[in-house]
Amino acid sequence: MRPTLITLLPALVLAGAAALAQEASDAVAPEAATATGGAMSANAMAALKAKEAGEPVRAPNWMVAAANPLAVEAGAAILAEGGTAADAMVTVQAVLGLVEPQSSGLGGGAFLVWYDAARGALTTLDGRETAPLAADPTLFQMGGERMKWWDAVVGGRSVGTPGTPALMFDAHDRYGNLEVSHLLQPAIDLAESGFAVSPRMAASVARDAERLAGQPRTSAYFLPGGEPIAEGALLKNFPYAATLKALAGGGRDAFYTGDIAQGIVDTVQGFDANPGRLEMIDLAAYQVKERPAVCAAYRAYDVCGMGPPSSGALTVGQILGQLNSFDLSAGVEDAQVLRLIGDASRQAFADRGRYMADSDFVPMPTAGLVDAEYLSARAENLKGDRALDSVAPGRPAFDHALNWADNVSVERPSTSHISIVDSYGNALSMTTTIENGFGSRLMAPGGFLLNNELTDFSFKSHADGVPIANRVEPGKRPRSSMSPTIVMQDGAPVLVIGSPGGSRIIGYVAQAIIAHLDWGMDVQAALDMPHAVNRFGTYDLEEGTYLEEMEGPLTELGYEVNIRGLNSGLHAIQVTPEGLVGGADPRREGIAIGGWGAWALGMRRVANWPGAVIRNPPRA
Ligand code: GLY
Q1: How many angstroms separate the alpha carbon of residue 336 from the centre of ligand 1?
Q2: What spacing in Å lies between the alpha carbon of 166 and ligand 1's midpoint?
Q3: pLDDT confidence of residue 275
Q4: In this predicted structure, what is the pLDDT of residue 466?
Q5: Which residues form the signal peptide (predicted)?
Q6: How does pLDDT run across 9-26, given as a tens digit for each residue?
Q7: Which of 93, 133, 183, 223 keeps 20 to 30 A from 143, CA to CA?
Q8: pLDDT at site 3
Q9: Ligand 1 neighbourhood includes 433 CB (under 6 angstroms)
Q10: How many Å separate Cα 43 from the centre of its chain?
Q11: 8 A C-beta contact, residue 21 and residue 221
Q12: Maximum distance among all Cα pairs of the chain, rounded to whole angstroms
């Protein structure tokens, strides 16, 4: 592979050292800094070096890959002491909510795909935010017209009932071994002692400073003294630590009832410029939903992920399913290969825009959309040699009359992805979000940002009198693009992958899977390669990479080409007979760390510190 991408890695390493010299900010920490947040272990430094060199990380028994080294290190420690992938996820998510608060956290939602090694079974957990019971299809309309995007996002109106805390507890109840109090402790410690603000977080705050200034609590945290928090500054979050302690002691209910819930509701309803409709009943009624994985056949594999309300598995599956009969071996620098991928994607996005929404509320042709015969019929359209002149939704098999209008919503890149394999052979792929960077820009009294997930609904409820499947309805979950994926072969996982990136997530994940399966790249090379993404409009080519050279050939084929930044955050783990191979996206700050499992070494009790209680044998 040619080297292509800028990397933030050296700056990130330096940030850890810079933190040592920083005073704690008065606005976020009422006492002097005492800790060295940001210092990295030898493991993390080695992982960063590997990523910088374009090398994957290899390990025999367990691995975790996520968007911030502090979160990955904390998760790795849990796996090393015998925790399951679900245990490690609780720790990783709790730390990410602190150190990457702009992307995910307790105020957001997530989807989790789980491979259960003991049962050889795959399932998914839906922790998506829900619309308040008081919401209606006109939530994002004023005087019958669609609201402007930012007017809708900033404030309480866009906040859905958070699902991430419930998902953390639900996954842990089903698949965890260690005590929640133990799993939350690393984030509590880090919140109290402080962490070094990463370059990415500092840059995100600086870019968004005007919007972050709108709510006093958000502003005090991110703009102490009125200035964006600096890279390397030591940041503490005592309210967040208190929230995690409440969850450690009181469980799920401590979030969804009582003071923490009331703080969320007051924040949402009390933002006078754009109040929301969330009430205590919405939080108390929140439920994680277990749903069957949606799988599509591709080559010798089953590509499995999150079905509705996510469009992720269906759209990734549709792209790959249409490509099944084509030879893509000429690679990403071949215009005809890009044409095939691009037009398969355009056709998949046409179906997505027409049919995909929360299937608990609208009838959906879920099986029909990834039916092999349907996809091979759609693939007939790809047999020319020029870009399709026009693309329309297909007619997947379904047992209801379908008459939906096309979705109308804006989707911006944000979000975070966690991939984990534990030493029992379980695999977890979880994409987690508060939607836009910094979500609604409202911080709850509990020290976490609230999502703006409701703007993933269509702002229009109808088009020419025809209802839109993804319109707002009370209690409904907005359509997502998140594509946490586990690729299976002969019933066992071979690749655990996912990415942030708004609706481009789908293209990032599909291309990385093709790079790995068709072009034989190891996971790090597949994540490093530049992106070419076509949703339903322009063909987007990644700026500053060799794919810019494809502008001419693609324009010749009839595409409108747009050269732009394509900020994926792919994290992937390859499962091989020789062990695990992991990679982290060079466009973000994440790493992969793997190791030996104490469990795999035959130690029946591996707790290495008080409070770590391991159920033995691990629960299936
Ligand atoms: N808000 C990002 C997604 O759900 O696709």
Answers
A1: 30
A2: 18
A3: 97
A4: 87
A5: 1-21
A6: 333 322 222 222 222 222
A7: 133
A8: 32
A9: yes
A10: 24
A11: no
A12: 67
Exposure string for 303-337, b = 16+ CB within 10 A, e = fewer: bbbbbbbbbbbbbbbbbbbbbeebebeeebeebeb
Handedness of CA 341, 347, 349, 352 (dihedral sign): negative
- What is the C-alpha separation between 292 and 306, in angstroms, rounded? 8
The tokens describing 214, both together, are 């709108």
Alpha carbon distance 90, 498 (integer Å): 18
State the catalytic residue, choosing from 415, 431, 432, 455: 415
Query: Which tokens is 455 given?
Result: 């703007």
Q: Report the C-alpha gap between 315 and 353 in whole angstroms.
A: 10
Q: Is 136 exposed, middle or buried (0-12, 13-18, 19+ CB in 10 A)?
A: middle
Of all atoms in ligand 1, which is nearest to the CA of residue 478? 4
How far apart CA 514 and CA 141 sit, in angstroms, is 40
95 CA distance to ligand 1 middle (Å): 20
Burial zone of 37 (CB within 10 Å; 0-12 exposed, 13-18 middle, 19+ buried) = buried
More confident site: 4 or 85: 85
181 annotated as belonging to a binding site for a ligand: no
Please check if 128 is assigned to a binding site.
Answer: yes
376 is in an annotated binding site: no
Asked whether residue 236 is assigned to any structural domain, the reply reads yes
**Are 545 and 485 in contact, with CB atoms under 8 Å apart?**
no
Residue 373 covered by a domain: no
Do 348 and 322 contact (CB within 8 A), yes or no? Answer: yes
Look at residue 536 and tell me whether its pLDDT is greater than 90.
no
Q: How confident is the model at residue 78 (pLDDT cuts 50, 70, 90)?
A: very high
CB 98 within 8 A of CB 200: no
Ligand 1 atom closest to residue 503's alpha carbon, by position in its atom list? 5
How remote is the C-alpha of 330 from its chain's centroid?
Answer: 31
pLDDT at position 34 is: 27
Residue-number span of the structural domain to which 200 is assigned = 12-290+410-531+566-595
Question: Is 480 one of the annotated binding-site residues?
Answer: yes
Question: How far, in Å, from the CA of 382 to the mean position of ligand 1?
Answer: 28
| Alpha carbon distance, N-terminus to C-terminus of the chain | 41
- Does residue 404 belong to any structural domain of this protein? no
- In terms of residues, how long is the chain? 620
- Best residue for ligand 1 mutational test, from 316, 349, 358, 415 (most atoms within 8 Å of Cβ): 415
List helix spans (H) across 100-163.
149-153
Question: Would the CB of 456 count as within 6 Å of ligand 1?
Answer: yes
Please tell me the distance between residue 435's alpha carbon and the centre of ligand 1 in angstroms.
Answer: 5
Which of 100, 112, 91 has its CA nearest to residue 244? Answer: 91
pLDDT reported for residue 146: 93
Total of domains in the chain: 1
Judge if the beta carbon of residue 436 lies within 6 A of ligand 1. no
Query: Active-site residue 91, yes or no?
Result: no
How far, in Å, CA of 150 to CA of 211, rounded? 9
Q: Which is more confident, 517 or 409?
A: 517
- Model confidence at 620: pLDDT above 80: no
Average pLDDT over residues 158-177: 98
In CATH, what number is assigned to the domain containing residue 578? 3.60.20.40
